[in-house]
Design a protein that fits this description.
The complex is a heterodimer of chains A (340) and B (102). Chain A has 340 residues and is α+β, with helices and mostly antiparallel strands. In chain A, 31% of the residues lie in helices and 32% in strands. In chain A, a hairpin with a 2-residue loop joins β5 and β6 (141-152). Chain B has one domain. In chain B, 75% of the residues lie in helices and 0% in strands. In chain B, α2 runs parallel beside α4. The chains are: A alpha+beta (340), B mainly alpha (102).
Chain lengths: 340, 102
């Protein structure tokens, strides 16, 4: 990873529609409009109306739409951001809503002397929704507010770090895939000491990353796993590398079972095979599998019963089903032999 | 010609990095029997289902096991204890609870 990217290029396209004059000089319009309103005869009667109504009388909503695409690339990284936004303004008030989609593509390369790591290309997405509000209080001062949330990694550095953690710790039973998201709120004040020319602006924001809570909670979990069994997820049946990583190897993928496997349910031989296959599962895993599938106990109850986390339970059930499916295929449905 | 093939592979792998891999889908297929998945993941799995014949088979096999397993209780009488009644389940839970509290 080269940072800062020295050989980087930036492409930016922006479209603006609506009334840019309003966008450029939000500070001077309300007085002008209010002054026009008092000069015209028909509005003169409303001079005694409350101040708020006077300010917005005769004003109409101005619309603003914006689209933007940016890309940053270097030899080992590609970042893109696409944004679309919409906003309305009337008199002293303006609101905006925008949606952004980011992609982070990076070639992960372990640091020197990191002997556990390996090269991998990482690809992550981020979706963000933001809403903003601008309210002019009086001549030089404007109140600013914004808020929103995002789903995905906050930036490409988090994605890089996540890959690092995955390579180093994913073998541990308590490791969980990160599902990062967050919310942010910010408020600020803008002082336009020279209308439409110079301003001073200060903002304070609060950002909450859910991922922190996630890892904090993960640290408290009790573990109930059969390590030997759980290290096996039939990895040898998936492409280990190449462009189609983790796709089924064609010769080892699931085959078509008999057209009507339901008929086998009345066959005593089938149930003997089923029993033999279920008996091959590790004791704890088979107990969980039978509680869930045979006795149809709900996952919440099993978790409470055995004091395990739902994630742990799903992993065990997944591997139990996978192993059982493979065993049935090899010993009952299979037309070709296979190791069980 | 070689360059064209390389570009094609590049584009396909670019696409592939953006969809769920078969391995991830097998995990989600199992989870979908235990809980309601988020809408986004359900949609991604639907897309994968259209593209991947192995997943179509895998899903059918999982559902077959899911439907068959409750009947396993009737056929395992010789080798394993009876299917738990609700009462037995409650007692077992109670016993485990007591053990944990102690």
């Amino acid at each position: 990873m080269i940072w800062p990217p020295l050989s980087s290029g930036v492409i930016s396209v922006a479209l603006l529609a609506g009334e840019p004059a309003e966008a450029l000089a939000p500070g001077i319009q309300p007085e002008r409009q209010a002054g026009e309103a008092t000069n015209s005869g028909e509005v003169r009667q409303s001079l005694n109306a409350p101040l708020r109504e006077l300010r917005t009388a005769g004003l109409r909503w101005n619309h603003k739409a914006e689209a933007d695409f940016e890309a940053m690339f270097a030899s080992d990284i590609l970042l893109t951001q696409g944004t679309i936004g919409y906003g309305q303004s009337r008199g002293p008030t303006e609101w905006t809503l925008s949606y952004a989609h980011n992609t982070f593509d990076l070639d992960y390369r372990p640091a020197p002397f990191d002997f556990l790591g390996f090269d991998r290309s990482v690809s992550e997405n981020r979706n963000a929704l933001q809403a903003g509000l601008k309210q002019r209080l009086f001549a030089p001062l404007t109140l600013l507010g914004a808020g929103g949330f995002y789903d995905g990694f906050a930036d490409y550095r988090s994605a890089w770090l996540n890959e690092y953690y995955r390579q180093h710790f994913s073998a541990l039973p308590e490791y969980q895939e990160a599902q990062p998201n967050g919310q942010n709120v910010s408020a600020g004040l803008r002082w336009e000491y020279l209308p439409a020319t110079g301003f001073f602006q200060a903002e304070a924001g609060f950002l909450k990353n859910k991922i922190v809570d996630h890892y904090r909670k993960a640290g408290r979990e009790s573990s109930f796993t059969d390590l030997e069994f759980l290290s096996d997820e039939q990895q040898e049946r998936f492409n280990p590398d190449g462009p189609f990583r983790d796709a089924w190897i064609h010769e080892l993928g699931p085959i078509e079972w008999t057209p009507n496997p339901g008929a086998d349910l009345d066959n005593a031989e089938f149930w003997k095979t089923f029993h033999d296959c279920a008996a091959k599962l590790p004791v704890k895993v088979s107990r969980v599998f039978l509680l869930r599938e045979m006795d149809e106990v709900s996952t919440d109850e099993i978790c409470a019963l055995l004091n395990i986390t739902p994630n742990n339970l799903w992993v065990m059930l997944h591997r139990a089903r996978m192993a059982l499916r493979r065993c049935l295929e090899a010993n009952w449905f299979g037309r070709r032999g296979g190791k069980t | 010609m070689k360059a064209l093939a390389s570009i094609k592979t590049q584009m396909l792998s670019w696409l592939w990095r953006r969809v769920l891999t078969c391995k991830e889908v097998t995990q989600l297929a199992s989870q979908s029997l235990d809980r309601t998945l988020p809408r986004k993941q359900r949609f991604q799995m639907r897309v994968h289902f259209l593209l991947c014949v192995w997943y179509q088979r895998y899903a059918r096999h999982l559902h077959f096991i899911h439907r068959a397993a409750p009947r396993y209780a009737d056929h395992m009488a010789m080798a394993a204890p009876q299917r738990l009644t609700d009462n037995a389940k409650r007692r077992m839970k109670q016993a485990l609870q007591n053990q944990r509290d102690r």
